[in-house]
Write a structure and sequence with these properties.
mainly alpha, 74% helix
């Protein structure tokens, strides 16, 4: 009976070895796929970050630090040298913090994506993987970036729509917002490219948000995968201890088994 138990354990281990090896190969494949997807996502977000930082910085220079988002303005007719001209008057420029916040989000994602892209590329080349704690921190970081990007994307979209609404006189002008940028608004700032600048920045921010949604999903999958792997390691360790205890009791001589306390029976 004891010999049969030992033989059964040996057969169990011989069958379990190829299963464990196959499971490890599957884990490595999943790990490489997740890291590759994260690396591509970070590099794409890094590229779209330039679509935000460069146009907003150029617009800030041309507008002399003023922000057109959420500006209050109107058209007014004036007499000049015997002719009536329409002049665009800005009653109050938008808060500078609105443009500064969008620029900050673009610059922050640029630096973060550069660092994260290098880290994931290094892990991919060296065959490393995140621990459960680092994967959980990465998930929290992804959620924070998602919040920042969605706030800045909505801010630049709503604020620029308000500007286009007032600059077209609520749709009464014969020209569109894009066409008005080529006309003289009689302001002390350069308005020749405001539409291009903010459309590119708006596209960049929404693209970054979309990419970070995918990165957040990948970060959640890594946390879940590390959690399941941690639970699997605990189960295997518990199973190993049980097998060792059974093997030790099975190899004990009959006289020693008779002396064992009843609590182990």
């Amino acid at each position: 009976s004891r010999q049969g138990t030992v033989n059964a354990q040996l057969r169990f281990h011989s069958l379990r070895l190829p299963v464990v090896a196959g499971s490890e190969r599957d884990e490595m494949e999943i790990q490489n796929k997740l890291l590759s997807a994260q690396c591509c996502g970070y590099l794409l977000a890094l590229l779209f970050s330039f679509f935000v930082v460069v146009p907003l910085a150029e617009n800030g220079r041309e507008f002399k630090g003023r922000c057109l988002l959420f500006s209050q303005a109107f058209w007014r007719e004036e007499n000049a040298t015997g002719s009536v001209i329409s002049r665009f008057v800005v009653k109050e420029w938008g808060p500078p913090a609105a443009c500064q916040f969008c620029t900050f989000v673009g610059f922050f994602t640029l630096i973060l994506c550069a660092v994260q892209g290098w880290r994931t590329l290094f892990y991919l080349c060296k065959g490393h993987d995140d621990t459960f704690f680092s994967a959980f921190l990465n998930l929290l970081l992804s959620c924070s970036v998602l919040f920042l990007t969605i706030v800045s994307s909505v801010m630049i979209s709503v604020g620029f729509n308000i500007w286009c609404d007032v600059v077209t006189d609520h749709g009464n002008m014969p020209m569109s917002c894009e066409e008005i940028q080529s006309t003289n608004l009689h302001l002390d700032v350069n308005t020749s490219a405001f539409y291009i600048h903010f459309r590119i920045a708006q596209f960049g921010l929404w693209s970054i948000w979309t990419i970070w949604v995918l990165l957040g999903v990948l970060a959640f999958l890594k946390v879940y995968r590390n959690y399941k792997r941690k639970e699997l390691a605990r189960c295997l360790s518990r199973e190993k201890e049980l097998l060792l205890n059974r093997s030790a009791r099975g190899r004990a001589p009959p006289e020693e088994q008779a002396d064992l306390p009843s609590v182990f029976i």
